[in-house]
Amino acid sequence: MSTFPPTFLWGASTSPHQIEGNNVNSDWWAREGLVPGMEPSGDANDSYHRYREDMEMLAGAGLTSYRFGIEWARIEPRPGQFSNAELAHYRRMIDTALELDLTPVVTLHHFSNPRWFAEEGGWLSPTATERFAAYVTKASEILDGVKWVITINEPNMMAMMVMLQEAMRAGQLSQWQSPTVEGESDRDRIAAALPVPTPEYARPFIAAHLAARAIIRKRTDAKVGWSIANGALYSTPENAAKLMEVRHSGEDLYLEASVGDDFIGVQAYSAQEVDANGLVPHPEHPDNTITGAAYRPDALGTAVRHAAAVTGLPVLVTENGIAATDDTRRIAYTTEALRHLESAIKDGIDVRGYLHWSLLDNYEWGHWGPTFGLVAVDRATFVRTPKPSLAWLGSVARTHGDSLGTA
Ligand code: BGC
């Protein structure tokens, strides 16, 4: 008998900049043209035009939910100038999901900002919250029928990105670093030297989240929350105090700020050690994934338990997955991750859904190499080829987890 409740959402996640293509008014697009060695997003997966096909694949496989984002840089290409055509585009996406019986989970901000917002000082500008709130107010007009809204994706990663940009400006960091691909430059050294992210970097995101939450609550009937990058951090007993300190500034600060939300979005991929000096970069290992992370399917259970303990909120797993070329590895990783999730549910944790990262092989923030998708995409023709993992996850969804069997 399945542990996963019948109303459990089974789905996959994406973000606009990573799949849409030609997000030309965003700060990421601008950066891609300037940083040597950084691959451009270009046409990405052309999902801006092919979103129906993407959603049909998802629904056809048996999944019941799709998490996607709406792009601030498109909706507000100049400060205060909103595009009705882009709002209508995202409304069509929501309608398509509803038509296909996919529960839409809509993200309002996923790493990319309008270029003008970045030029104005970005998240460190005194007007950041006001700017974000104006966008969210406008975006709330198209959210009718949406039951789940994520205000900001991984504010803790965002805070780290802002901190790294500041370090680059100050000449402390010589080379741009992808936020999600490890071991390319001196990021780990900087991160260890400046425990990430210090509270002043968290503050603007918390303020923006609370403002957005109030707007969404007033103007829609969606459940509202945000999604946190959960590191499943651990240490030896001697380093327990350092673990608490690092976890607090990097994670718990944001979990604590979500008290009063309707749910907490958990995003877990790997686990990471903290020693006396802070976060320990994942050591090289043949099992490491393409992004350099340790192969740790157990991270999901740890992350869900920790997030639930700190927030007391229902959990929605908004991202979990693996960058792998071998799809059997994706299935093996996800099987194990879901068993850990099932065991957390058995222990009484209120988990509302599992959204796999990602539906498509997409633009991994500066790189095209790490492939997280349930579906491969030819980047010249945009032809989509589902991998066996898509049908596999669909069968898990259709059997409410029964097909996972027992370990
Ligand atoms: C982000 C995604 C990213 C994924 C895999 C998360 O940090 O929200 O945008 O692609 O991890 O690295």
Topology of helices and strands:
Elements: E1 9-13, H1 16-19, H2 27-34, H3 47-61, E2 65-69, H4 72-75, H5 84-99, E3 103-107, H6 115-119, H7 128-139, E4 148-153, H8 155-169, H9 187-193, H10 199-219, E5 223-229, E6 233-234, H11 240-257, E7 264-267, E8 272-275, E9 278-279, H12 299-311, E10 315-319, H13 327-346, E11 351-357, E12 375-377, E13 384-386, H14 388-398
Parallel strand pairs: 1-2, 1-11, 2-3, 3-4, 4-5, 5-7, 6-8, 7-10, 10-11
Antiparallel strand pairs: 8-9, 12-13
Helix pairs in contact: 3-14, 7-10, 8-10, 12-13, 13-14
This protein binds beta-D-glucopyranose.
CATH fold-level assignment = TIM Barrel
Using DSSP, what is the number of strands?
13
Give the spatial strand order of the biggest sheet: 1-2-3-4-5-7-10-11
**Class in CATH?**
Alpha Beta
Quaternary form: single chain
Small molecules held by this entry: beta-D-glucopyranose
What does this structure look like?
The protein has helices spanning 16-19, 27-34, 47-61, 72-75, 84-99, 115-119, 128-139, 155-169, 187-193, 199-219, 240-257, 299-311, 327-346, 388-398; strands at 9-13, 65-69, 103-107, 148-153, 223-229, 233-234, 264-267, 272-275, 278-279, 315-319, 351-357, 375-377, 384-386. By secondary structure, the chain is an alpha/beta fold. The protein has a single domain (9-406), classed as TIM Barrel (Alpha-Beta Barrel). The longest helix is centred in the middle third of the chain and has 21 residues, at 199-219. It is globular, with a radius of gyration of 20 Å. The two termini are 15 Å apart. The mean pLDDT is 94. Bound molecules: beta-D-glucopyranose. The site of beta-D-glucopyranose has 13 residues, from loops.
